[in-house]
Amino acid sequence: MKRFTADYIYTLEGYEPIAGGFVEVEDDGTVIRTGSCPSPASEDNYVHGAIIPGMVNAHCHVELSSMWKLFRKGTGMAGFIDQINALRDTTTREQKLGQIRLRMDQMWNAGVSAMADISNCADSFAIKAASPMYTRTFIEVFGTEPEDCESVIGDARRLEREAASYSLDAGITPHSCYTMSPQLLSAASAAGLETGFLSYHSEESDEEEQMLVSGSGPLYDNRVAAGMSTPPVTGKSSLLYFIDRLRSAVDVPVRGKVLLVHEVCLDGEGCDAIKSCLENAYVALCPLSNIFIHNALPPVRLMRERGLRIALGTDSLSSNDDLDMIKEVFCLQQNFPEIPTGEILSWACLGGASFLGKDGVLGSLAPGKKPGLVAVSNIADGGRLTTASVSKRII
HEC string of 23-92? Predict the structure, then answer.
C-alpha cells in the first residue's frame, strides 16, 4: 500500500477538492480510499500542488505529430485544409514514427491514461499497442464522390482488421460533412456504430455552416476549386445534416456512443436534436485547437445549461502547440471563470473515460478504480490552475 498527500486532492467524485488530503492505493495503483490529512506536508510522498486521476484525451490525431510547428495560425478551416494537403507528406516514415512514439510517451508521463485517437493509416498501431495507455482507434474515412463509397469502406475495413491484429480496440468513423458524400457519411456511420462508437468532427467552424446552409463561403469555394463534390445545401446546420444522415442509416434514437468533436457553432436547436436523437452523445472540446485555427471557442455555457456530457481533447500537433491536457483545462478555466476547476477537470478525466466505456476503472479517485495518479504543480489558492501548472504522472 502507498499513501500520497497533497495540498488538494481532486477525487472527481464531486467538483470540490479535498484541501490537505490523501489518497491511498494498492501497489498496483488501485485506489483504496481518500480523505483529509491534518498535516499533509509532514508526510512522505507529499505533493505540493494537487493530485488528480489520470486524464483521458478524448480527441487526438497522434499520427500527425510530425507536423508540429509547421502550420500557420488563424487561417480558418479552408486555409488549414490547404496546409494539411501541402504538408502531410513532407516528413519521412521514420520521422513520423519517432514523433508518434515521443508524443505517446510524453502524454503518458504527463498523466494521460487513455485516449480516443483518430487514424487515417496504420502508422500509430504498433506504438499504441506497446503503450501502457489505453487507446480506442477511430479509423477515419473521407470521400466526396458517391461512386467511391464502396471502395472507401473496403479500404477502411482492411485497416480495421490490421488494427485488430495489434489487439487494438478500433472501428470505422466518418470525418465530417464537408469531406464526405452523403452516401459515405451514412455508410461510415453505420459501420462505426457496429462497434458501438463514433467520433465525428461537427460544427468546427462558421465555414462549415455556410457550406451547408447556403452553399457559400471559403470552405465551399475550397472544395469546388479542388474539383470535389460538395454536400447538399440544406438550409440547416451541419449537425442537423449529420443527424439526418444517421436517420437514413440506423435506427433513431441512436444507442451507440457518439462523440461530437468541437461543436464551436452549436445552438439551442442543435442541443435539442442531440438530446432527442442520440441517447449516448458526448461533446469533445478542443479549445486550443479552435483558437489556433479560428480564434474561436465553443458555447460551453450553453452545453452546461442543456446538460450535455462533455469530454476534453487536444486535437493534433498540426492545430496545437502541445498535446497537453492541463493547458486545455487552464484555457477553459480562464475563458469560463464561473465554471469550477473541478468540473473542467472532470471533463478531462471522467468525461472521456465515460465515453470510452472505461469509467468503471478510470476517471476518478474512487475505491476500486485504477485511474493512475497525477501530480499538478503550481496551483493557486482554492485549487485553481495557473499559467505555470504542469502535470506529471505519479502512478
Answer: EEECCCCCEEEEEECCCHHHCCCEEEEEEEECEEEEEECHHHHHHCCCCCCCCHHHHHHHHHHHHCCCCC
Q: Please give the model's pTM, rounded to 2 decimal places.
A: 0.97
Which residues, in sequence order, are CB contacts of 150 under 8 Å at separation 6+?
none
The H-or-E segment that residue 167 falls in is none
Q: Quick one: cell of 311?
A: 469530454
**pLDDT (mean) for 317-326:** 97
What 3-state DSSP class applies to 274? helix
SS3 102: helix
With CA atoms as reference, report the closest residue to 11 among 43, 51, 39, 58: 51
What residue ranges define each of the domains in the chain, with the CATH number in brackets?
1-54+360-395 (2.30.40.10), 55-323 (3.20.20.140)
DSSP type of residue 143: B
Q: Which one, of 37, 46, 45, lies nearest residue 17 by Cα?
A: 37
**What does the pLDDT look like over 268-277, one tens digit per residue?**
999 999 999 9
Omega before 218 cis (within 30°)?
Answer: no
C-alpha cell read off for 154? 473496403
List Cα–Cα distances, 310 to 150, 300, 304, in angstroms: 33, 9, 8
CB 230 within 8 A of CB 258: no
Q: C-alpha distances in angstroms, 58 versus 87, 218, 364?
A: 25, 28, 16
> Scanning the structure block, which residue is given the C-alpha cell 449529420?
242
